[in-house]
């Protein structure tokens, strides 16, 4: 099966390149009609679907266009902004503003992924727990998980949150998710109708923007700064526009790395209660601090069930296990369980058990302690290199990214085009901006590439910017 898929992938890429080469060598000119799918499939002796897939991707990358019932034609260069036209990854990104397009590019210096270098993750220990889990639960693959999540795992997490934050909760307030992104999606599906207003930080986590947009929400933004939010503005918005929900990532925020101060957290809960706005607190980076622990999560100030708390464990334990948890009050939980049941009928039990046994072991703490040091070193290396420029950023106390501004309104989208030629990727500001501007900003992740590559890649990036 794997072999066939690989073979198909290979053919599909070949067809894509075959057509693109002919266009680039001007064998096929602008507005020329391409061979029909049937013709090309016959000519190359391959499946028509493979040709169709390649044509669709070429269309997406603005290399060809389709005329209904007539066929496919070579796209003219004028329809693509000239500075983006020479790199398919960048042109696809410009059309869709989609982060996944950037991540798909294979580069030597990857500053676009807010992911931790696999060499810093506990892969080796996790494989021990895989074995342990099969010994303890030999029939584990023969059953589903409870939709809300494995009870043993929910008990362990409830115990952890109570001990750590002295909050009142039990296993019934916890929903286990396949990644926190699933949590954002479930909330959007459950609570947001088209034309509801959703408040967002600006900038924000791009997938969350896309999820709420896809739900038809009207998006309103408040700036996040190193000092948090302008709470007067937040109050004005809540009063005037009555947002259904405020999506926030207040601790080592993606993409800026900023942390909302403790004093604002309590006040936010008060405002949200007063104006009946749900707070969706996304806390994917809480444990990735360098020196000092961040303030307690906003949900710990909540006594009336206004805050829905999302905690991912994917980033620093295992992105592949896709384990995250949501904490919320019981009436919200009921609706979410119904939607989760329709979505996947519960997250994979095997993943939950592997996670549980690793999470409950002392190895986790040892791993995080080492990881914090390694990430801080990488952040400092990135900053050392950037100190040779006149670019601006605020040094974060945790998280995976620097949020950097180029001087004189220079465009980071143009810089991305140039940097791709040096095999460097990063995320241009507009991707993280609900208003799609912030064009002189970019997110540089220091967590994925190793120390040597960081130095080397940054030197090249700075050179490209010149
Ligand atoms: C703020 C934020 N929330 C959620 C996620 C998604 O995390 P998960 O892997 O748990 O779905 C990310 C990943 O980049 C993120 O940055």
Automatic annotation (TrEMBL):
Keyword Transferase listed: yes
Top-rank taxon: Bacteria
InterPro entries referenced in this protein's UniProt entry, alphabetically: Aminotransferase_I/II_large, HTH_trans_reg/aminotransferase, PyrdxlP-dep_Trfase, PyrdxlP-dep_Trfase_major, PyrdxlP-dep_Trfase_small, Tscrpt_reg_HTH_GntR, WH-like_DNA-bd_sf, WH_DNA-bd_sf
Domain HTH gntR-type positions: 9-77
Entry annotated with the keyword Transcription regulation: yes
Keywords: Aminotransferase, DNA-binding, Pyridoxal phosphate, Transcription, Transcription regulation, Transferase
GO molecular function terms noted in the UniProt entry: DNA binding; DNA-binding transcription factor activity; pyridoxal phosphate binding; transaminase activity
One Pfam family hit: Aminotran_1_2
Cofactor(s) recorded in Swiss-Prot or TrEMBL: pyridoxal 5'-phosphate
PANTHER family for the chain: HTH-TYPE TRANSCRIPTIONAL REGULATORY PROTEIN GABR
Sequence similarity: In the C-terminal section; belongs to the class-I pyridoxal-phosphate-dependent aminotransferase family.
Annotated protein name in UniProt: PLP-dependent aminotransferase family protein
Natural source organism: Bacillus taeanensis
């Amino acid at each position: 099966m794997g072999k066939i898929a690989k073979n198909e992938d290979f053919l599909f890429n070949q067809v894509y390149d075959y057509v693109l080469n002919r266009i680039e060598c001007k064998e096929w000119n602008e507005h020329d009609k391409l061979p029909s799918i049937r013709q090309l499939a016959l000519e190359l002796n391959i499946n028509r679907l493979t040709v169709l897939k390649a044509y669709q991707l070429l269309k997406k990358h603005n290399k060809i266009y389709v005329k209904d019932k007539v066929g496919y034609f070579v796209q003219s260069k004028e329809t693509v902004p000239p500075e983006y036209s020479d790199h398919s990854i960048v042109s696809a990104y410009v059309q869709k503003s989609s982060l996944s397009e950037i991540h798909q590019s294979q580069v030597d210096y990857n500053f676009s992924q807010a992911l931790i270098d696999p060499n810093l993750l506990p892969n080796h220990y996790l494989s021990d727990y895989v074995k342990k889990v099969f010994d303890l639960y030999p029939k584990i693959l023969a059953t589903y998980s409870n939709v809300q999540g494995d009870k043993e795992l929910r008990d362990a997490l409830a115990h952890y949150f109570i001990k750590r934050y002295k909050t009142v909760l039990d296993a019934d307030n916890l929903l286990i998710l396949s990644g926190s992104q699933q949590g954002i999606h479930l909330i959007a599906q459950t609570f947001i109708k088209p034309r509801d207003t959703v408040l967002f930080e600006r900038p924000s986590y791009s997938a969350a923007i896309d999820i709420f947009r896809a739900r038809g929400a009207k998006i309103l933004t408040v700036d996040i700064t190193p000092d948090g939010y302008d709470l007067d503005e937040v109050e004005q918005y809540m009063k005037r526009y009555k947002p259904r929900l405020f999506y926030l990532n207040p601790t080592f925020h993606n993409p800026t790395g900023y942390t909302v101060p403790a004093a604002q957290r309590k006040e936010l809960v008060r405002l949200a209660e007063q104006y009946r706005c749900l707070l969706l607190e996304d806390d994917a980076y809480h444990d990735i601090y360098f020196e000092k622990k961040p303030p307690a999560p906003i949900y710990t100030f909540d006594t009336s069930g206004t805050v829905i708390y999302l905690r991912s464990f994917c980033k620093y334990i295992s992105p592949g296990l896709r384990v995250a948890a949501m904490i919320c009050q019981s009436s919200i939980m009921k609706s979410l369980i119904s939607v989760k049941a329709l979505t996947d009928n519960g997250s994979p039990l095997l993943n939950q058990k592997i996670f549980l046994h690793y999470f409950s072991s002392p190895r986790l703490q040892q791993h995080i302690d080492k990881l914090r040091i390694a990430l801080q070193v990488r952040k400092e290396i990135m900053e050392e290199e950037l100190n040779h420029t006149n670019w601006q950023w605020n040094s974060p106390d945790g998280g995976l990214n620097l949020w950097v501004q180029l001087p004189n309104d220079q465009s980071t989208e143009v810089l991305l085009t140039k940097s791709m030629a040096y095999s460097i990727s990063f995320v241009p500001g507009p991707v993280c901006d609900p208003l799609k501007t912030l064009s002189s900003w970019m997110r540089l992740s220091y967590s994925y590439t190793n120390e040597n590559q960081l130095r080397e890649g940054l030197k090249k990036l700075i050179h490209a910017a010149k």
